[in-house]
Amino acid sequence: MKWFEIALVVLTFATGIIWLLDRLLFARRRREAAGLLEEKEPLVVDYARAFFPVLFVVLILRSFVAEPFRIPSSSMMPTLLIGDFILVNKFTYGIRLPINNRKVIALGEPQRGDVAVFRPPHHPDQDWIKRVVGLPGDLVAFEGDTLYINGERLDYQLLGQYEGRGRGRDMTGVAVLREALGDRPHDVLESTGVHDPRGQGEWRVPEGHYFVMGDNRDRSDDSRFWGTLPESQLRGKAFLVWMNFDSSAPGWVDWSRIGKGIQ
């Protein structure tokens, strides 16, 4: 995704500069040289004039308003499924420059329960998505199948067994639980008796960092394994599923997921 972002920025600036230089320096000379004849615009200028407005609008929308992402893994099931195409609000956590992700205007910070897109410190060229469970200063603990925030055990309600579809069908039969994370209750998946010892423990969240976890607790590579997430790595807040496509699922498209809000 980062290389696409770099290419978009380079193409936008290149076409814009070509168009601007032509209007300021070369167009008048061509008209004077052509005289009564029809002016012939160079092909590169013609392409720059045609593509620059489109590229500029796409760059602004993608960098500062909303960006599309595709869910490639099962780590956020059952909230997000493999094959979901989502939209991410790019200004919720502040206005950031493309490519280097530097925040230039502070507008807000992640709240507990947000589903956030970010670039993990150990894979800075990849976009990941997890749920924010720990805020700066929090003491987060995970024991067995239970999450604790600042020493308080979260409440869980067993909803039944999960029935997967498509590429997520191997999760069929695991427990679906409603986790009461503050005022943001949401569903999580838990495989009974499956506890990776590396994902058990207690962590203090430093200032300027967040603790993130996947809703599919036994299939998620998250802060339990690689540490807290620096604020500078945040990309935006996921808010909508706009398409679902999984060639392994019956019918390929789950129409019920289109337009589904992300909680």
UniProtKB/TrEMBL annotation:
Its EC number is 3.4.21.89. CDD domains: S26_SPase_I. The active site is at residues 75, 130. It is a multi-pass membrane protein. InterPro entries: LexA/Signal_pep-like_sf, Pept_S26A_signal_pept_1, Pept_S26A_signal_pept_1_CS, Pept_S26A_signal_pept_1_Lys-AS, Pept_S26A_signal_pept_1_Ser-AS, Peptidase_S26. Residues 45-242 form the Peptidase S26 domain. It catalyses: Cleavage of hydrophobic, N-terminal signal or leader sequences from secreted and periplasmic proteins. GO terms for molecular function: serine-type endopeptidase activity; signal peptidase activity. This is Signal peptidase I. The gene is lepB.
